[in-house]
């Protein structure tokens, strides 16, 4: 019984830290998911990939937060519009948390 309680105590202390290292706070990821669905999925697809279009597979976006934020704010190659005036810095960071949590490689 004592061992079970001790194991639970260790797991409850390391669980949130592991979750943060694995992709951030779940509430932030959830907010990013909502923003993605509302603002991004019509071009990038509901699962971050939209076959047959010029949009990249966001599940394979490099682990480069600065590049992501810059692209979202300023747009890309006259194909992706700039969102810097439409999304707050917090919303863009939430999007990054969501996209990076879904990274496949």
Textual characterization of the structure:
This protein is mainly alpha-helical and 105 residues long. Helix content is 59%, strand content 0%. Residues 1-23 have low confidence and may be disordered.
Quick recap:
With 105 residues, the protein is mainly α. The protein is built from four helices and no strands.
Low-pLDDT stretches: 1-23
Q: What is the tally of beta strands? A: 0
Structural class: mainly alpha
Q: What integer is the average pLDDT?
A: 81
In whole angstroms, the N-to-C terminal distance is: 41 Å
State the shape. globular
Please give the count of helices: 4
Main beta sheet? none
Along the chain, the helix and strand elements come as: HHHH
State the helicity in percent bands. Answer: 55-70%
Strand content: under 5%
Radius of gyration: 17 Å
Which key phrases capture this entry?
105 residues, mainly alpha, 4 helices, globular
Question: Any chance you could write out the topology, listing elements then pairs?
Answer:
Elements: H1 2-21, H2 26-44, H3 65-74, H4 89-101
Helix pairs in contact: 2-4
